Amino acid sequence: MLNHLPMRHVRRGGFGLLCILCLIFSAPAHAAAEDAAHYPTTPDELASTVRKAIETKDFESIDHIVNWAGITDYKRREFSAIIRHGLGRPIAKIELEQIDDATREGLRNIKAHKLNMQVSHILRVTYADGEPGEAAPAGVYMIGRMADAYRIALLVKEKGTTEHD
Q: Model confidence at 19, in pLDDT bands (50, 70, 90)?
């Protein structure tokens, strides 16, 4: 009887541990599916998402729509700093412009870089805090579509090149 008692506790503990592990590992999958549903799917929704994120200083909302595929940790930190610099600034206007063929071709031919997705639009955020009589400060983002949602595209180093190429 005494030998059997410790085994029951081990079995129960093992089952409890298994249940906890199942819950832990199923939560990220559920969160990822939930996040995928929150990508902007229309131009108005994209502009609204970016405007709200800038006005409320919500870095995570913009970070969520950036396509980080192929980006090094260093470049991610660098681009994240650029995003954070625009947070909280007053916005004069946000425009989503269809990209023209010359610009698309120019983006394809940047030395030692490539886009991490097809680009269809440029999102221009013009800030209202510029100096009078000078060019208005703006943030410009390359926009493409992935899985029927708008995402921010980035330039990625070509394989076999270095930061100095």
A: very low
